[in-house]
Amino acid sequence: MNCFRTIVAASCLAFACSGIALATGTARIQKADGGVRYYRNVKIVIANRKMSVTTSNGVGKLVIDKAGCMASGELVRCYPFDAVVYQRGDARRIPIASGTAYVNPTSMAMQLPLSSMRLPPRGVLLVMRTQTGAYFSLNGVADVLKR
User: Fold this and answer.
1) 3-state DSSP call for residue 38?
2) What residues pair up with 38 in beta bridges, in sequence order?
3) Could you tell me the pLDDT band of residue 22, with boundaries at 50, 70 and 90?
4) Is residue 124 part of a domain?
5) Residue 102 counted as domain residue
């Protein structure tokens, strides 16, 4: 039994150190008409002052390229105000009415301000409303996080 535990622990450590990304994000889109779609296993990349969320099949991508960000303790809090959706070769600007994103760039779980919720290391939480009345939410772990 001890040998089995050692092998499992070594395998988990090797996998964790390999840098293989696990797309663990879940995105939810609620259109203004009330229709809801869930996208599981989305890839979250935060780099070059942008955040991109790509569907698991790679067909759709949301890029938030304009946001005001600041430190909130160890977390980073951002207020997105412009995004673009890329889908099947088309690009469409998404005007954002309001929204807030939290990113945990640390290697430890961190508690959100005024909440009991904790973001895991590289955790991302985003909720925004578009000017057309649609809602977009995202919860997951960033596959790529470059400061």
Assistant:
1) strand
2) 28
3) low
4) yes
5) yes
Q: Closest Cα partner for 135 from 100, 106, 90? A: 100
Phi, psi of 74, deg, nearest 5: -85, -15
Question: What are the tens digits of pLDDT across the range 130-139?
Answer: 999 999 999 9
Q: Cβ atoms within 10 A of the Cβ of 137, count? A: 16
Write out the DSSP string of 44-91.
EEEETTEEEEE-TTSSEEEEEEEEEEEEETTEEEEEEEEEEEEETTEE
Alpha-carbon distance values, 141 to 34, 59, 147 (Å): 27, 20, 15
Residue 51's domain comprises: 21-145
Give 26-75 pLDDT, tens digit per residue: 999 999 999 999 999 999 999 999 999 999 999 999 999 999 999 999 99
Q: Is residue 94 part of a domain?
A: yes
Number of domains composing the chain: 1
By C-alpha distance, which of 74, 72, 75, 67 is closest to 99? 67
16 in a domain, yes or no? no
Q: Rounded to an integer, what is the distance from CA 135 to the centroid of its chain?
A: 15
Which residue, 30, 54, 59, is CA-closest to 42?
54
pTM: 0.82
